[in-house]
# Entry
Amino acid sequence: MNTEKETPVYVAPQWKLVWWKFRKHKLALVSGIVILLIYLVALFVEILAPFLPDQTNSKYLYAPPQSLHFVDEQGNWGLYVYGYTSKIDPVALRRTFEIDSSVKIPVGLLVEGVPYKLFNLIPGNRHLLAPLDPDQPMYLLGADRLGRDVLSRLIVGTRVSMSIGLVGVLLSLVLGILLGGLSGYYGGNIDNLIQRVIEFLRSIPSIPLWMGLSAALPLDWDPLRVYFAITVILSLIGWTGLARVVRGRFLSLREEDFVMAARLDGASEMRIILGHMLPAFTSHIIAAITLAIPGMILSETALSFLGLGLREPVVSWGVLLQNAQDIRSIATAPWLLIPALAVVVSVLALNFLGDGLRDAADPYAR
# Structure
């Protein structure tokens, strides 16, 4: 009976074994769906963002979030938000807002708005959710100090913050596998040289290093060049951990029988490294990559939050959190901390996904 149940396991291909093992990890499966949704948001920013990220409105500075309603008091279906009433606080001498339930602002799906080019190729002007009257306010997550929509800026910032993690990890992956592999495979003077470089980089405090590298960026650079430079900086710092992992595995694998058999068979060193040794610890590389992506996201957020990384007009989660640096802003508009929630959710989801992929990459382990 048990033999009949286990027969599919013995004849199934590797990818199917990995999938069977991965789907048993429920938390990783849910995290994978969350990460997929986040990257879908990053892909379709132009459609999902109700407004342009730099669109200001001086009438609604620090306007509080509005709730999206589906059914009115009479039971009629339809999307709408309530308007605002504003008044001047005589003590603080600033404008305050209250939700006015007597004013309904209709909201529609796929509403015509500001034209854009999806993926810089496909022209369009439809936005998934927007007010039918573009002059009416709709701030589902509130407004910032310049009257800009926090939801639109959060959506736009998702593309930058999530992509900088992927690009940075790809560069770190190449450096880590290349230098770590050379260090562990050849040993000797090459190993000593690479390990001393790693120890030197890891001994430098992170914040002063970021400050020095960020200060080297010219202030007149355009946002795209700054984005690329920050990605390279994070990659140059982040490859050392993966290189240590790869080196340790290469040291233990280079004397294994299958490596010796490949040498006796006349395989080249590059084929031995890429075709025999690297696949032997795929799970370790997957774990390192999935743990490095949230590290990159946190690094970019910290750099931008401190004013050392990306700067306006670039929109990232770290740049958005710059508006929440002082107590007055948080007390006036606590919704400015919402980007921090996005960082926490994405980092936790990536970590849980990494745990599930690490376990699934070795489907024969118990």
